[in-house]
Specification:
- The chain is mainly alpha-helical and 161 residues long.
- It folds into two domains: 10-48, no CATH class; 55-156, no CATH class.
- It has six helices and three strands.
- The two termini are 39 Å apart.
């Protein structure tokens, strides 16, 4: 069975040209997974890269990522408002990236403020969105919170270790 290869990125083409010039016998090639991306009828990145998954606490307030609690979005948000805030969040993150590239301090401050506004609107920062008086345990290691026993049981059942 012959392995399919992609057309190669500009970076790969440049590396191949340099390798050829240096007389190397194995120029850079795409992996089979990379070769499938972008092909008509080929696989999408979604088919190749497994989706991110995180465990959600029983009360739905947090997700657990690498053993740390992260506050979830407010469940009472209307879908249109949620979409608007997520779009604002992603625009802000792109702004942070662009400001880092150009070392623009003012643009960085504005982009970070935009990210903060969006996260507060989504309920991921700022006052908690639940009303039972339970404390905020955001960004804490699960083992040091009231969810420690639940998480230990989850780990034993094959959940996130």
């Amino acid at each position: 069975m012959t392995e399919k290869k992609g057309h190669g990125s500009e970076t790969a083409k440049k590396a191949n040209a340099e390798a050829s010039h240096e007389g190397k016998s194995k120029p850079r090639t795409s992996s089979p997974a990379q070769a499938e991306l972008g092909k008509k009828g080929g696989k999408s990145k979604r088919d190749i890269v497994p989706p991110f998954s995180a465990d959600q606490t029983p009360d739905g307030r947090y997700i657990v990522v690498r053993g740390r609690l992260w506050r979830r979005q407010r469940p009472d948000l209307e879908p249109a408002e949620r979409d608007r805030l997520v779009h604002e969040l992603m625009d802000g993150r792109r702004g942070v990236k662009a400001a880092k590239r150009t070392d623009n301090v003012d643009a960085m401050a504005e982009a970070r403020a935009q990210v903060d506004r969006a996260k507060r609107g989504l309920g991921e920062r700022g006052p908690v969105w639940w009303t039972d008086g339970a404390p905020d345990q955001n960004r804490r290691l699960v083992e040091n919170t009231s969810y420690a026993e639940w998480y230990a049981d989850l780990s034993e059942q094959g959940g996130e270790p």
